[in-house]
Amino acid sequence: MNPLPEKIVCIGAGYVGGPTMAVIAERCPAVGVTVLDHDAGRIAAWNSDRLPVFEPGLAEIVGRARGRNLWFVEQRAGLAALAEADVIFISVQTPTKTEGEGAGKASDLRYVEACARFIAEHARGHTIVVEKSTMPVRAAERIQQVLAANATGATFTVLSNPEFLAEGTAIRDLLQPDRVLIGGEDAAAVGSLRSLYATWVPPERILTTGLWSAELSKLAANAFLAQRVSSINSLSALCERTGAEIGEVAAVVGTDSRIGPKFLKASVGFGGSCFRKDLLSLVYLCEHHGLPEVAAYWQQVVDLNEWQKRRVAAEVAAAAKNRRVAVLGLAFKKDTNDFRESAALQVVRSLLRSGCEVVAYDPRVEGARFASELGDATGFTVAASARQALAGVGAVAVLTEWEEFATLPWASVGVAAGATVFDGRGIVDRAAVRQAGLGLRVIGSPAG
Ligand SMILES: NC(=O)c1ccc[n+]([C@@H]2O[C@H](COP(=O)([O-])OP(=O)(O)OC[C@H]3O[C@@H](n4cnc5c(N)ncnc54)[C@H](O)[C@@H]3O)[C@@H](O)[C@H]2O)c1
User: Fold this and answer.
1) Is 86 inside any structural domain?
2) Would you call 274 a catalytic residue per the annotation?
3) Which residues' Cβ are closer than 6 Å to ligand 1?
4) What b-and-e string marks burial along 326-358, b requiring 16 or more CB atoms within 10 Å of the CB?
5) For labelling, which of 2, 133, 200, 309 has a CA lying 20 to 30 Å from the CA of 417?
6) Which atom of ligand 1 is nearest to the CA of 114?
7) Which domain does 431 fall in, by range?
8) What is the pLDDT of residues 55-110, one digit of tens each?
9) Going by CA atoms, what residue is nearest to atom 34 of ligand 1?
């Protein structure tokens, strides 16, 4: 068994870096864990009672470890921690490139490369550098080059350790992962990282592979998950036309043990910061390596998702006779405050463009941040409760599966007479909507 690293650093205090390091610190009290970010506001929030990330169970874990062996530090104040670190995780964003070669598809590695330069300047001795961010396959090569070109005497081993947590269940996923994946060729470095996870993860769940397989496995896993969503959503549209019911179809399909029941819920489309960009990254890699048929196959998963969001938005806009619409749910899924790439962003934009007024409610998303992401938010307001959002509206779009939306007392919420409820998640109480005399449209269910 390799000895535990004594000191680790993570660059990037976001949705992955924050929760992952909090769990490592909580599970490994002997390891000092410093999380750096150049966003001073984010660091201040991690050091406050209002954490920048909402995840069930996260605040309790941070509360137990912060100040003991877990520190959130503004980047420039973290140079000593970097110099002393045995292991440095890179957990910064890898968004889709917006300019240059591969724009619109390839991953933008500039944040990762900035980290590599920073590490090369400040690390001392031999340091293990871990790709925690999701990377295109062979990105480690680039990191190694940047480290080597900028190093001042220090030496490095690069490992890939992609993160598989899902927002909304991040703490459970980190505490009881299906698997932890470590890719690399340096057995001692792999062993050192393995020893960290082995503190709480059963050994058979810690998988080791070559570097390139680890990088590609993360993209592949997200592509498979997104593909299931697009597959069921494609059939949701056919159900609406034929009288079949998507919930029944999904239940039957999911009983096949080769297919399994998870991730077969029809919805207004997948969102979140990862699926779209990781699929596009895969598409770009396939094109780059001369595989246009494979690229087209995965591109279709993205295209279907965009189509699903567009068709929902058009239907909601058409249903809102008085041009006033309540949007319930801005987060891309329940139990997170993250609205990156959420269906709500596209549906709200489309409703505003079609001249509707939109009043939105989400229990966790800060309305002001969502409004600023919209850009032109004229006609968009945020309510403090679902009831307040629903007053007088002619249409309702339920876009996030928060439990409170499943139990709304539709007869007494004050929507306009004749309003239509559009359930983009298949969660509303259909009997209550019908008893209230309201129109109802459920994704994947025949109209009427
Ligand atoms: N969010 C998820 O559910 C999830 C799950 C698995 C993997 N991932 C991957 O993990 C990576 C991080 O995702 P995230 O959602 O945590 O992103 P995020 O945007 O929430 O966090 C990234 C953080 O890195 C900081 N940062 C960027 N460049 C920096 C630099 N040079 N120095 C210091 N700090 C810097 C940013 O200020 C930000 O706080 C991405 O590659 C993503 O694909 C995300």
Assistant:
1) yes
2) yes
3) 11-17, 36-39, 42, 75, 91-94, 111, 114-115, 133-134, 163, 165, 167, 273-274
4) bbbbbbbbbbbbbbbbbbbbbbbbbbbeeebbb
5) 309
6) 31
7) 212-448
8) 999 999 999 999 999 999 999 999 999 999 999 999 999 999 999 999 999 999 99
9) 37
